[in-house]
C-alpha cells in the first residue's frame, strides 16, 4: 500500500441520506478504493476532466498515489471521483440499499465476488452508511487477498508472456530458415527443369528434321491408306463371323448326317423335278410337329400338310414359347420335323432326345424352305413306323 493507506483517520458521521462521501471514508480504504473501483479508463477520464499534465517519467504508481492523496480532501478531484464511482456502481448501490441485515449484506457481497463484480460491490459496501464494520472488514480483507492473487497471477502471466515471446522468436527464425531452404530448392529445381528442356529441344532438333507441309497427292494417299485400314478391319470381322458359322455347322453336322444306313441316296435332278410335279401323297391323317422355321412360311406349310390329308403342329423352338411344352407336342405328333438352319441347337437336341425316348420318327431338314418341306412330305410314307431318326430331307 501507499503511505496514504497507513494513516488511521477517525470515522466521521455519515452524510445525510445514508451514503458516505469519498472524503468522509477512513483513509485506510482509499488505496483499495482507487486501485479496485477505478479502472484504467476511469483514471484516464479523470485526468482529462481535471486537465492534469503528467510528467514524461510518470509511472502508473505515481498517478495512483496522486488520486489516493486527493481522495481524503473535499476538492475537485474527490468530488469527480465520487461522481464516477456512483455512476459505475449504480446497480450495486441499489441492491445493497435494499438489504437491512448483516446476513443480507454478506450474501450480496459473496454473490458479487462469485460473479466477478467486485469493484462495484466494494464501493457500494464502503459508501453505505448503515453497513456494520464486520461487513466492511470482510470486504476489505477479500479485496486485499484478491490483490495478492491478482499480483501473483500477473507475475505468472508475465513469465508466460516472456516465454511465449522467446518461443515465438525461435519459431520465426526457424520459419525464415525453412523459407530460405525452400526458395533455394525451388531455384535449383527450376534450373534443372530449364536444363532438361534445353537438352530435350536439342535432341528433337537432331533426331526429327522439320516437317514439311504435305502436298495434295500426299494428303490423298493418306486418305486412301485410312480407307484401306477400315476395309481390313471389316475383312477381319467377316472372317471371324465365317469361323463362327463353321463352328455352328460342325455342331449340327451329326443331326444332318444321321446313321450311315439311313443316309439318303443321291437322286438325279431330272427325277427330282418329275417328283415335284407328281400328285401329293396321302398322309392318312398323320400329325406332323414342325419345330422352329420361319413364321412367314407356316401358312404354306400348313396348306401343304392339309392337302395331303394331315395336320400340322408347330413350336417355335423357344423363341417366344418355352421348351417345356415340347414333350406334350411330341407325344401328340406322329412325325417330328426340325429345320436345323432355323432353330436353336439346344431345342433341336431336346426334340431329338424326346423322339428317341417316345419312339417317334425325327426328320431333320437342311433348309426351312417350302420346297424342302414338300420333298420331305413325299418321303414320309417310308419313314413313318421305321427308325426314330429319319434321313434328313
Count of discrete structural domains: 2
The major β-sheet equals: 4 strands, parallel
How many runs of DSSP E, i.e. beta strands? 4
Helix content class? 55-70%
Separation of the first and last Cα atoms: 132 Å
* Sheet/helix structural class: mainly alpha
Task: Choose one word for the global shape.
Answer: elongated
Radius of gyration: 60 Å
Report strand %: under 5%
Order of helices and strands: HHHHHHHHHHEHEHEHEHH
Mean pLDDT: 80
Largest sheet, order of strands side by side? 2-1-3-4
Number of helices: 15
Question: Unreliable stretches, pLDDT < 50, 5 or more residues?
Answer: 3-17, 260-279, 382-387
Organism: Azospirillum rugosum
Coiled coil: 154-188
Keywords: Coiled coil
InterPro entries: UCP020408 (IPR016772)
Quick tags:
393 residues; Rossmann fold; four-stranded parallel β-sheet; 15 helices; 5% strand; UCP020408; DUF2325 domain-containing protein; coiled coil
Overall description:
By secondary structure, this protein is mainly alpha-helical. It has helices at 30-37, 40-50, 60-71, 76-88, 90-98, 102-115, 118-127, 133-207, 216-257, 269-276, 298-307, 326-332, 345-358, 370-378, 380-383, and strands at residues 287-291, 311-315, 335-339, 362-365. It has two domains: 3-159, no CATH class; 260-383, Rossmann fold, CATH 3.40.50. The chain has 15 helices and four strands. It has a four-stranded parallel β-sheet, sandwiched between helices. The protein is elongated, with a radius of gyration of 60 Å. Residues 3-17, 260-279 and 382-387 have low confidence and may be disordered.
